Amino acid sequence: MSLATGILRRALRLPAPRTPRVTVDRDVAVPMPDGVVLRHDLYRPTGVHRGPVVIVRSPYGRAGWVGTVFGRLVAERGLQVVVQSVRGTADSQGRLAPFDEADDGAATVTWVLDQPWCDGRLGTLGPSYLGLTQWALAPAAGRSLRAMGTLVTASSFRDQTYAGGAFSLDNALSWTSMMRTMAAGPFARSTRLLRGRRTLVDALDALPLRSGDHHATGGEVDWYQDWLRESAPDSAYWARRDYTRGVAEVARADVAVTMLGGWQDIFLPWQLADHAALRAAGARPRLVVGPWVHTSGPGLAAGLREALAAFERAFDGTHGSGGVAAATTEEAPVAVTLSGDGGTRHLTDWPPPDAARRTWYLRADHSLSVQPPPDRTGGAVHWPGTRVDYDPADPTPAVGGPILTGKSGPRDQSALEARPDVAVFTSDVLPEDLVALGPVSATVHLRAATEHLDVFVRVCDVDPRGRSVNVTDGLVRLSPGAPATAADGTRAATVELWPTGHRFAAGHRLRLQVSGGAHPRFARHPGTGDPLGEASTLVPQPREVLHDAAHPTAVTLAVEARH
């Protein structure tokens, strides 16, 4: 056991290693069917010559945290690990085609199963892209695959890329810039790191969007351009990179699936959709969700502990009953730790089957009430609403929330809520704790001069001092006819917010923000119907959010049942 892994073991709260000595075969070449050679490092516990193998496929190289955490640390627990660089990354040959990992994953599985040191049993492990590669190879592995450790990930990245029908600009361009920096030579890499976030921030404001990669990296990046062109839901590009069809196959193969998510992780809604698909197919995956963002160290540590415990159980208990499995003792299939210091809940399923739905309505005095707006009479055609202007030339900024890099997660909303383009509605003080646990949605009735616009909704927790912190949010992009315009000229937009688990403490208040965007997390809406990557004309989009009895704008939370 190295000093580094010893420190990491304590930081991650892992049990003592079972096999402190690990040998590493570096740069092992594996030919793909098309002749391209991919390379991996093979971590083997000293003295182990045959047994199950954990496959880790990464675009982020094999050294550093990837090799240490998912290679050496896992091998110290008695398992062989193949840590492979995906095509076109590190020293694996070919050209990186992001998310297109099924063929190489299948070829890798075939190669590993054919090795004399593999006993025919496989596991997979890793977060984010390393999770997508697991779903990509799972159908080819079939019943050889015994366990999957899928952390902050999903079986398809398409819907995250176009969340709510908009474009997840910050995530897309940040990842593109990071990958280009990693691929650069040492001098170029140092130069780009020195230029830092400032260059990326400038690139996120660039118009048209197709110029963003030039501003961020100095040149055109093929996959970024693909993402701008291939936004249609029926795109063949994304169909090839969609592994959701294999989720049910994993369930039928009786694979032990561990899923780790965060309330403010970029993939949470789609990871929970994978969980629902597994449950519908009869599987009983282990789901753990907590108050974490995508890059959260505590979240990834919890996921690693869960995955290692699952490996130990899945591989016939060959590594002893007092090891990693002892680190996770809860038997409930779902464990969620609430934000807002709400503690942990151990549940039979997700969403909680006994949760109640509670709705808060917007009122003309900018309050939130559980009582619907009063029904007024008198034949008025137009009840006044709340004006919420949106100017894409000065787009409403994103403050916190599920973002890949930068200032993600819970953030003080004071400056944002002071802007004239953000409408704020606040409840009375809560007389007792309120636990939101499950799906969240909003229906926003509005009247607007243009049919092209975005609607952004955010739920916040306001403490007794008046400090507002974001809990969950979501955006939907509107286009002509979607949703339809009613006879009175209004439209009702349904916004699906991130599912949540949060305790609103007694003495706090709920707050709802309504605005026209959250740039650059979501690319600003130009107010036109121009193609995603081409728009450069910016059209102001004034709108009126309605909150009368005929147009009851409201947010609905799943609320924990009181026992």
From TrEMBL:
Domain of life: Bacteria
InterPro entries listed in its UniProt record: AB_hydrolase_fold, CocE/Ser_esterase, Galactose-bd-like_sf, Xaa-Pro-like_dom, Xaa-Pro_dipept_C, Xaa-Pro_dipeptidyl-ppase/CocE
Keyword Metal-binding tagged: no
Classification via SMART domains: PepX_C
Domain Xaa-Pro dipeptidyl-peptidase C-terminal: 322-556
Gene3D superfamilies associated with the record: alpha-amino acid ester hydrolase ( Helical cap domain), alpha/beta hydrolase, Galactose-binding domain-like
Pfam families xrefs: Peptidase_S15 (PF02129), PepX_C (PF08530)
Keyword Hydrolase: yes
GO MF annotations, alphabetized: hydrolase activity
Keywords, alphabetical: Hydrolase
Protein name per Swiss-Prot or TrEMBL: CocE/NonD family hydrolase
Species of origin: Actinomycetospora rhizophila
Classification lineage: Bacteria, Bacillati, Actinomycetota, Actinomycetes, Pseudonocardiales
